[in-house]
Structure formats: C-alpha cells, structure tokens
UniProtKB/TrEMBL annotation:
InterPro entries linked: Ub_conjugating_enzyme, UBC, UBQ-conjugating_AS, UBQ-conjugating_enzyme/RWD
Catalytic site: C108 (glycyl thioester intermediate)
Protein name: Ubiquitin-conjugating enzyme E2 G1
Classification via Pfam families: UQ_con
Reactions catalysed: S-ubiquitinyl-[E1 ubiquitin-activating enzyme]-L-cysteine + [E2 ubiquitin-conjugating enzyme]-L-cysteine = [E1 ubiquitin-activating enzyme]-L-cysteine + S-ubiquitinyl-[E2 ubiquitin-conjugating enzyme]-L-cysteine
Species of origin: Alligator sinensis
GO molecular function: ATP binding; ubiquitin conjugating enzyme activity
Amino acid sequence: MYEETAGVYEPPSSAVATCRARCLGGVGCRQRRELNKNPVEGFSAGLIDDNDLYRWEVLIIGPPDTLYEGGVFKAHLTFPKDYPLRPPKMKFITEIWHPNVDKNGDVCISILHEPGEDKYGYEKPEERWLPIHTVETIMISVISMLADPNGDSPANVDAAKEWREDRNGEFKRKVARCVRKSQETAFE
C-alpha cells in the first residue's frame, strides 16, 4: 500500500526504512554494485546469505612476491547496525599466521578501529575508521597488511616475535602451511 504525500504516491515510510536498513543505509548496496562493476584485483566480496546484508564473505588472494602469495584466504566482514558511522569487524575463517591477526582470526588494523582518539596514543585519528571508508579501502588495507605486517602493534604476539626474529625460518614455514591449507579448502 502506498501513502499519498502532496499528490505523490510513495511507499510507506516503514517500507523505506526497512529497505534502507536492509542495504546498510543504502551504502552497502552501492558498494556491492561498485565492486561488481569495477572489481579490484586481489579480492572478491559478496553476501554470506542474501537475507543478511550485514554479513559478507571475502576471498583474499595472497599478494604476489610475499610469503602469502598463492593463498586464498576466506574472511567474514560483519557490519554494525550503525554502519558507516562505525567500522565492520573482520575475521579470517581460513587459518592464517600473521602478526596483525589474532589466533581467533580477528584482524587488528587501524582502519577497523573505532573512530576518534586512540587511548594508547599509538594511532592518529585519521588512521582509524572514518565513514568515508568502503569495503574496497578495507580490503586494500588488509592486502597491504599481508604484504607488510606491522610487528610493532601485534594482535598475535607469537607471530610478531617470529616475524622479527626468524622471518625466513619458522615464520615462513607456518605461513607456507597456511597457504597450502588455504588452497586445499578455498572453495569448500
């Protein structure tokens, strides 16, 4: 049923609100269309479930000339109800050994941290989440993180220690195991 407003028939405001909420305030739909129209090298993204626009699955290809090259890493992006004012959370589903990914798979990089001042003084506000960021900017940051880990701000202290002290030994072996495993399970 439509409502008449100044001689114009429009969908009821509740239907508009539902549609906007389903599309993450319209932002999510726009970003999905843009990614489909202009895919970005190194990752693909889509909904986990067509009925839940707040949960996306991404496949990240390990960047060339890095220890992660050849890997196909599956991750989930979970958007808060007030996106884009607050950042999504990202969690690797595929096992990955990386200083900036904790042992549960949660990604810890500045762009995914709540906006504003860092209470520890490590990050500048402009390095943290801003509502202008998109799925594309998040994924580019994650691909960059794979290419150049930040050992100074680790989510996985053991991986950071190995990255600093034994990059071409134990760290490299663990990453190679994760890459092989990711290739075996990528399309399950």
